[in-house]
Design a protein that fits this description.
Elements (H helix, E strand, L loop, with lengths): L3 E5 L7 H13 L3 E6 L12 H13 L5 H18 L5 H13 L4 H20 L2 E2 L16 H11 L6 E2 L4 E3 L5 E3 L5 H11 L4 E6 L20 E3 H9 L10 H7 L3 E5 L8 E4 L13 E14 L9 H11 L13 E7 H4 L3 H12 L3 E14 L9 H11 L6 E4 L5 E7 L3 H12 L2
Helix pairs in contact: 2-3, 2-5, 3-4, 3-5, 4-5, 6-7, 7-9, 10-12, 13-14
Bound molecules: aspartic acid (ASP).
The site of aspartic acid (ASP) has 13 residues, from helix 7.
Length: 438
């Protein structure tokens, strides 16, 4: 039987009205038999997310101050949903138990996790589905990383009966029995873990946008949605700053080839964005899948005659960054030059030491640092099969009078990366978007 795992984000479950939409979506396809809820999110602009309130409440309690008001606000969110939907779950005892734990000094992970836990209880009651506490099926190692193998084995066994089940997102359990959360937005990861464990046909991630946009809407007016993208393309886009899905949510499903689909709870007939391991690479329209970028990089440029024949040159340069604990983003090179691109704020505290160490280790002819560089990745599997993509991209930049400071194209031909001055960042994205999309 076909199996779909659905994850609903905070705004999709922010109030009783949203719960009704979620139920409607689940009823539309009987294959949707696993739900991973987030905690209630914002209902309107300026509203608070329950997770933020829970963190605040825990901080207030830990500081020995008054926390009851914040807790009451949180409780009211759940009580309102339960009342409006006529739920039977004993919410009052659950809230009392949490309040007691806060009183006796519960840590931030425990308190924050209750957002998903309670929402899961309400949703399971509303749907008439089984509730499975994530603390019974998601395991972390001592060092705080996910124990993905144990998690997969246990979850697979417990969900093998294929009964419709709600598994709250965002948390699991540490070896010492304490609750541990993922980083913010981590319910996406829970959803991907469940999808892997039940060997789902698809992992649907329901949110409040109709998929990924081709460019940042704060820069490009009304950018198109991406209808389909590969995991590899998305990795390049999210690495450069586009985020809808938690970065770590790709790995559990990517590994086993389960497609992820980003869908909109408020517009459920929109097909959203399909993320798949493989997609046809015949010429796509538009040629590119998306554009993403970030400002604030620094480029350390090193020149030395005959460096190409000096064995170990690159290794020594990178060793300097490794010693300083700075990871590098790109390393474009020429015959007698090599540049290392790093995040500006990571470089700043180590600037002098890096200059000194490079000078000592490789005796360059010239060593210069260019700050305030933006890096922009134009990503698209369609580039492989379309001639002239680079030519179009650089002509568009030249027509807009933008100086290209750096170029990097990976051998996968999945992206073309350009470096420009921070001041040209927005204009570059606009120029590339207009060239390829219009
Ligand atoms: N509720 C958590 C957060 O706000 C986790 C999630 O929604 O994915 O970060």
């Amino acid at each position: 039987m076909k199996k779909i795992v659905t994850k609903f984000g905070g705004s999709s479950l922010a109030d009783a009205g949203q719960f009704k939409k979620v139920k409607g979506i689940l009823e539309m396809d009987p294959a949707r038999r696993y739900v991973v809820p987030s905690a209630p999110g914002r209902r309107f602009d300026g509203d608070d997310k329950v997770t933020d309130l829970l963190y605040r409440c825990q901080r207030e309690a830990a500081a020995g101050g008054a926390w009851q008001d914040t807790f009451d606000r949180i409780a009211a969110r759940y009580l309102e949903i339960a009342e409006e939907l006529g739920l039977k779950v004993d919410l009052a005892s659950e809230l009392d138990a949490i309040s007691e734990k806060i009183e006796s000094g519960a840590n931030a992970d425990f308190v924050a996790s209750r957002g998903e836990y309670l929402n899961g209880l309400l949703l399971a009651d509303y749907l008439g589905w089984r509730f499975m506490d994530a603390a019974k099926v998601i395991f972390f190692h001592e060092d705080g990383t996910l124990d993905s193998e144990k998690t997969n084995v246990v979850m697979m066994a417990l969900l093998a009966d294929e009964e419709p089940t709600v598994v709250p997102g965002f948390y699991g359990v540490s070896p010492n029995g304490n609750i541990k959360t993922f980083s913010r937005g981590g319910s996406d990861i829970t959803g991907a873990i469940v999808a892997r464990a039940v060997v789902a046909d698809a992992y649907e991630n329901w949110t409040d946008v109709s998929g990924f946009l081709m460019a940042d809407p704060r820069i490009v007016r009304n950018p198109q949605e991406i209808s389909a993208v590969t995991y590899a393309e998305l990795r390049e886009l999210s690495y450069m700053g586009a985020s809808v899905l938690h970065e770590d949510a790709m790995f559990p499903v990517h590994k086993v080839g389960i497609p992820t689909i980003i869908r909109n709870t408020n517009n459920p007939t929109h097909p959203g964005t399909l993320i798949s391991l493989h997609l046809p690479v015949e010429p796509t329209v538009p040629t590119i899948s998306g554009i993403a970028g970030r400002k604030g990089f620094s480029v350390i440029a090193i020149e030395k005659a005959m460096m190409n024949s000096e064995l170990g040159f690159g290794r020594k340069v990178l060793q300097v960054f490794e010693e300083a604990g700075i990871s590098f983003e790109h390393m474009p090179s020429g015959i007698d030059s090599i540049s290392v691109v790093v995040a500006g704020d990571a470089l700043e505290p180590h600037r002098e030491e890096i200059i000194r160490r490079i000078a000592d280790l490789v005796q360059p002819d010239v060593l210069s640092i260019h700050d305030h560089m933006a890096i922009i990745a134009t990503v698209g599997r369609g580039m492989v099969s379309n001639c002239g993509t680079a030519a179009r991209l650089f002509s568009a930049m030249s027509r807009a009078n933008i100086n290209v400071r750096m170029i990097d194209q990976g051998s996968s031909e999945l992206s073309i990366i350009v470096g420009v001055d921070d001041a040209d960042f927005e204009r570059t994205i606009e120029a590339i978007y207009t060239e390829f999309v219009g």
